[in-house]
Amino acid sequence: MLIAIVICSVILFYVFMVFPRRTEKKRILNISTSMFAHRGYHDIGHRIPENSMTAFRAAMQRGYGIELDLHLTRDGQLIVFHDDTLERLCGRPGKVEDLTYDELKTLCLLGTSERIPLFGDVLDTVNGRVPLLIELKIPTSSLRICEETYRILKPYSGNYMIQSFNTMGLRWFRLHAPHILRGQLAEHLTARECREAWLLKFIVQNLFCNFLGRPDFISYRLSDLPHLSVLLLKYIFRIPIAVWTLTTNEDLKKGMSGYHIQIFEKHGENY
């Protein structure tokens, strides 16, 4: 009897930890009528770097939604940029959050003439023509990026959703802007090198942090699926699942046949 009680308690606790918000599935699926181009429809072979205005225009020309990444600069500007540091994309040392936008706007992306765009400029360009999937990069405990993102999005009339690996960012939106659709990003983090502690990575990859953010959808790396928590959320709680990053035709077929939202990246002429 005691063993049964313990097992039931563990199961109930697990369900409490991973339980999502379930009321917004229809709204998410209405927004996600197209695939999302990962960091825009970029192709460096054609001098179109990721998270650039040209990549976003190319996605819109093809009718794709746009997945993009946000960082907050030292002077409080929201920029569209993926990495925490500048080495890979701009060829110089430094952390994005340590520099002002005036310092960052002079840098070129991957040796092209493209510059790091402001989020506000991207919104003006997209102007509601395609949906946006906005990833918040939150490398520290500060949640100022959530406040600034919400401020800039308030007058925007286009369709969008936000997502983040950092559950505290989702919790901020749950408390201060619950009408905004939010997604928990996750992958097999414990198998990858990153700055966070192993326990924190374990909690995120198993979606045990959902009780804080109560996400509307899950965004999981396709190569790390299937996963027990994702299966539970998909088939029992029936919330949308996004998969990333689809880089081959085989990935695309898996993503389209088994999941609700596809985040893809152009490689060669696959697409």
What does this structure look like?
The structure is a single chain. The model has no long low-confidence stretch (mean pLDDT 95). It contains twelve helices and nine strands. With 271 residues, it is α/β, with parallel strands linked by helices. It has a domain of 180 residues: Alpha-Beta Barrel (TIM Barrel), CATH 3.20.20. It has an eight-stranded parallel beta barrel with strand order 1-2-4-5-6-7-8-9, surrounded by six helices.
What would you say about this model in short?
The protein has 271 residues and is an alpha/beta fold. The chain has twelve helices and nine strands.
Order of strands side by side in the largest beta sheet? 1-2-4-5-6-7-8-9
What's the CATH architecture of one domain?
Alpha-Beta Barrel
CATH homologous superfamily classification of one domain: Phosphatidylinositol (PI) phosphodiesterase
* Biggest beta sheet attributes: 8 strands, parallel, barrel
Tell me the overall shape.
Answer: globular
